[in-house]
Specification:
With 394 residues, this protein is an alpha+beta fold. It has helices spanning 2-60, 79-85, 94-98, 101-112, 155-189, 192-196, 200-232, 245-253, 257-262, 281-297, 357-367; strands at 64-68, 74-77, 118-125, 129-139, 145-153, 241-244, 266-270, 276-279, 304-311, 315-322, 372-377, 381-389. The strands form three sheets. It has a five-stranded antiparallel β-sheet with strand order 2-1-5-4-3, sandwiched between helices. A hairpin with a 3-residue loop joins strand 11 (372-377) and strand 12. The protein is elongated. The N and C termini lie far apart (119 Å). The relative contact order is 0.07.
């Protein structure tokens, strides 16, 4: 009996030990499962992040990104890169995908020079696109080498740089003439012999007329640069209020009548006196003045500039029409670009200005909630249109 009791105790103790071992193992297994679960979640999170990063690289970034393996085969190309290549690129060689000898030569330069892991060069691409091309070699290990290409379209930036240089030249040219004229006027006024001569009064009137035109040029430059500064700062203080259209148009073109008279031109205004629009008079006068000034510059002697307006239930459309030399069709899409100037005259003396007038006009009209556009035919003339909201409260 005692032996059975002793065996029973031994068995119970053994089962207890086995239970404790099983319990420890279960806890250990649970801990491992929890660790594996956490690792799985972290892995899934990294996968999701990788997918997000891949999406960003493909869809959001404006630069073209191409990743090549050691054999110069495309492993990855984002949307911008595929847009430049105009087809899918993965699996192709670089020269086959982009078809550009200059980019391929840059890649070979990095491949052949171990000490050089990076090159950068500005290259002309298809359709007159200017690309800032960067190529980086990434050495993950002795056996794993990758090449990353960054393709940045800097066409607009380079065009703007050229336009800004031309703007400075144009401003210098524009200021040189009135300053020279002002100096001549001062010299004339300071010459007692000229003033006392029989023709002194006539000469004085001519010089005063020259001075008025020169001051007009300088005033226009100052106003355009002021508005440009407000546009670039993002602050253009447009305050819309009911404004009679006809008086505003007449006020805008009043300073231009002497310039038109110099070219034996007429400015005709055919606008009903009952049209009232929502406008900021100061800025909208600048729109009319800029467009009309262009019409005068590019219209022939004895030309006619006609300003009219039509209306519907909601909008008023103003049209400024000339019978000048017109604008080439291929230049019409760029007519409202900042600093852009259309070469519409062989006479350099009449092809001047800052190249800001129409860009400023477009921005002001858009701030009014309207639209601006142009129709032109070479040799027959040009018409600029812009729309404004009509005051319907009365």
């Amino acid at each position: 009996m005692q032996i059975l009791l002793f065996l029973s105790i031994i068995i119970t103790i053994g089962l207890g030990i086995l239970y404790l071992q099983a319990l420890r193992q279960a806890r250990s297994l649970k801990t491992q499962i929890e660790a594996y679960s956490a690792a799985q979640k972290e892995l899934l999170s990294r996968v999701e992040f990788s997918e997000l990063l891949d999406s960003v690289l493909r869809e959001v970034i404006d630069d073209g990104i191409v990743v090549l393996d050691a054999n110069q085969r495309v492993l990855f190309a984002n949307n911008k890169a595929r847009e430049l290549a105009d087809h899918e690129m993965v699996g192709e060689s670089l020269i086959a995908s982009l078809r550009h000898r200059g980019i391929d030569e840059l890649l070979l330069e990095v491949i052949e020079h171990d000490e050089q892991s990076y090159v950068q060069q500005l290259l002309n691409f298809n359709n007159n696109i200017k690309l800032d091309v960067q190529i980086h070699r990434l050495q993950k290990s002795k056996r794993e080498t990758f090449y990353v290409l960054l393709l940045r379209d800097v066409t607009a930036l380079k065009r703007a740089e050229v336009a800004r240089r031309e703007m400075v030249d144009n401003i210098t040219h524009e200021l040189n003439t009135p300053i020279t004229t002002m100096n001549l006027v001062v010299e004339t006024l300071d010459d007692d012999d000229i003033l006392r001569s029989k023709k002194g009064h006539k000469i004085l009137k001519e010089k005063i007329s020259d001075l008025r035109r020169s001051l007009g040029v300088v005033t226009q430059l100052i106003e355009e640069m002021k508005i440009l500064s407000e546009i670039q700062s993002g602050v253009l203080p447009i305050l819309l209020q009911p404004t009679p259209l006809l008086p505003m148009i007449e006020s805008a073109i009043a300073p231009l009548h002497p310039l038109a008279a110099d070219h034996q031109q007429q400015i005709q205004v055919e606008i009903p006196d009952d049209i009232i629009v929502y406008a900021h008079a100061y800025y909208l006068e600048r729109v009319v003045k800029n467009i009309t000034h262009n019409a005068i510059k590019f219209s022939p002697e004895n030309g006619i500039i006609c300003i009219t307006a039509t209306q519907d239930e909601q909008m008023v459309t103003v049209a400024i029409k000339d019978n000048g030399i017109g604008i080439p069709a291929d230049q019409l899409p760029r007519i409202f670009e900042r600093f852009y100037q259309v070469d519409r005259s062989r006479d350099r003396a009449r092809k001047n200005g800052t190249g800001l007038g129409l860009a400023i006009a477009k921005h002001i009209v858009q701030k009014h909630g309207g639209e601006i556009w142009v129709e032109s035919e070479e040799g027959k003339g040009t018409t600029f249109f812009f729309s404004l909201y009509k005051d319907t409260s009365s």
